[in-house]
Amino acid sequence: MQEMAFVFAGFAVGLIVGLTGVGGGSLMTPILIFFFGIKPHMAVGTDLLFAAFTKMGGTVSMARQRLVPWKVVGQLCAGSIPAALLSLWALHVLGPASGIVHSIMTTTLGFALLLTSAATLYKAIVFSAQRQAAEANARKNHTGDPTRPRHWSLPILLGAVIGTLVTFTSVGAGAIGVTVLLLVYPMLPLPRIIGADIAYAVPLTLVAGLGHASLGTVDWPLLAQLLAGSLPGIWLGSRLVSRTPERFIRSVLSLLLAWAGFKLILI
After folding, report:
1. Which of 20, 53, 132, 200 lies at 20 to 30 Å from 207 by C-alpha?
2. What φ, ψ does residue 145 adopt, rounded to 5°?
3. How far apart are CA 98 and CA 107, in angstroms?
4. Residue 257 belongs to what H/E stretch?
5. Quick one: pLDDT at residue 164?
6. d(CA 155, CA 139)
7. Contact 159/79 with Cβ under 8 angstroms?
8. Which pLDDT does position 71 carry in this prediction?
9. Residues 184-227: tens digit of each pLDDT
10. What b/e string do you get for 168-187 counting C-beta neighbours within 10 Å, with b at 16 or more?
């Protein structure tokens, strides 16, 4: 019975990701902790590989449409991958199941969910109109390379922050990643922003997830059950996206993520 519950949870998260683009980590990790009682370190480790395998298909699809700016992906990975490896080393030294790591994970996860909630709500309420105006202005006044960041150091530094956040919480490569990309690459069209966000999350979550696996913090049967539900869920969500009230769904999700974030901080 519980196995079917995990499959259904994977399907629900996959469906929501397909409908809204909200990162699966910000949804799946709290579900595993609150509804299934999974220990935080096991929930994070399992969810990282869940995210890696789930987003591989999206990356292939985006790449075939030439929507992945690989230069941007490389710049972000230059900061996020080393940060993920350093974070994994810290987890190895401290012990992934230790009390201090449990405290760090739950508190950091709480703040990450609050940031994701704010980014999701912002996109739901004011993002579309502002982004359209910014893109129109950019096309009118700018003829340079859209993959050039505001400053060369920003993608590396912010990538390092996201890499650390993702390794400790599995959250950050979705809504937070998109927000960072919008700030650092203001001239990059929105479809390529999304393509970059999906593509750079794959090596980051794969490195972090395999690192967690080496520490014994991945539940492989649970991962298989979640993927069995998420893959058809994403397929269905991507085909229903044009028929759903995205703004309403994002607003409700932001409130749920904020609730989960406060609850984790107050544990």
Report:
1. 20
2. -75, 115
3. 14
4. helix 246-265
5. 92
6. 22
7. yes
8. 93
9. 888 888 778 878 888 898 999 999 999 999 999 999 999 999 99
10. bbbbbbbbbbbbbbbebbbb
Task: Please identify which residue in the block is written with the tokens 């690459």.
Answer: 185
Answer for the pair 229, 7: CB distance below 8 angstroms, yes or no: yes
Q: DSSP 3-state assignment of 199?
A: helix
Whole-angstrom distance, CA of residue 74 vs CA of residue 244: 34
Q: Do 234 and 57 contact (CB within 8 A), yes or no?
A: yes
Q: Angle CA(260)–CA(52)–CA(163) in degrees, nearest 5?
A: 65
> Which amino acid is located at 51 in the chain?
A
pLDDT at residue 111, rounded to an integer = 83
Burial tier of 78 (Cβ tally within 10 Å: 0-12, 13-18, 19+) = middle
> How long, in residues, is the chain?
267
Q: What pLDDT is recorded for position 141?
A: 55
Query: What is the dihedral angle through the alpha carbons of 207, 208, 210, 214, rounded to the nearest 10 degrees?
Result: 130
pLDDT < 50 positions in the chain: none
Asked if 185 and 134 touch (Cβ cutoff 8 Å), the reply is: no
Q: How far is CA 39 from CA 43, 75, 83, 103, 168, in A?
A: 6, 33, 24, 12, 13
Distances 251 to 8, 65, 167, 181 between C-alpha atoms, Å: 23, 29, 27, 21
* C-alpha pair distances (Å), 45 with each of 9, 20, 245: 17, 24, 32
pLDDT at 113: 81
The model's pLDDT over 3-31, given as tens digits with 9 standing for 90+, comes to 899 999 999 888 877 676 666 677 888 88
Q: For the beta carbon of residue 198, count every other beta carbon within 10 angstroms.
A: 28
* 235: CB partners within 8 A, 6+ apart: 14, 18
Instruction: Give 16's DSSP letter.
Output: H
